[in-house]
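Same chain as my last thread, 314 residues:
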Amino acid sequence: MVRQKIIHCGRGAKTYYREVDILMGKSTKRQRGPKTKRSIPKQERLNFKNSQRHLHQLCKSNFTGYDFRVDLTYDDDWLPDTLEMGRKYVDSYLRKVNSMRKKKELSPARWIAVDEGFDGSGRPHHHLLISGGLDRDTMESLWYTGRGKNAVSLGMASTETLKFNNDGIEGLIKYITKQALKDYKDKGTEGQLSLADLGADVSEDDIVNPSSGSRRRWRQSKNLIQPHEKTNDHAYSRRDIIRLVRQPADCEDTKKFFEDRYKGYALDTCRYEYNSVTGTWSIYLTMHRKRKDTGPGHKAGKSNRHKAGEVMTT
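reply #2:
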């Protein structure tokens, strides 16, 4: 059996971004018996890798070039002692943003927040991906505590519009989760992940700081559009997969094959993975929809303009 899994990043079946996983079933000829228990370091790295991938899919599903990245830092006088205190400041900031959006008749902001530096690895700060609609000066001015005459800036707030390429904002996702990845590398858990690893059922709640036992996961608003998937166990044969992996993943023939298979979509990346335990291959694709305009990740093109704070899918 070969399972095709299409992950649609947005609403409907014709989203601008999609990912395709093509997964071989277990081979009848095994080189050795399967492991009954995955090692703890390997599981930790797997959990992080799956969570990072889901985070990227969420970003593709919810944000466009009209939306913002906001970095929030602290002055010495307001440096929070705990992660909980830092999150209270961020929650207060988000309430101010949504209050301002309501005055301008905008829908509540969609957002994803990543907290860094609260485990002693650096100076505490926060990264936000958040809906556009307000101007940058307003977004930065709301990073304060207190009311009225007693309002005091918490520190520096930096706002910039999100910059997409055909593969979304993967570079930014890797940047804002870099410290979590560094923890796993420092523990010597680098290495190739198997097909079985990549198919595991894990979530963002599994990202844990192994040294302190404290959770350092990203948070999100409840109004995010969730990526959704559709599976098909008859789209490919094992012979198809063997033939495909015999040619380079980045060659023109591979690109043409998948673009012919998934009409209307352009291939951005193709990656092969081999599982030496089960003797099977898997193929991972990222794709974007071919359109006359530049797509939801960019601002150019009248057909791409939409109400600020809303995600356009087609």
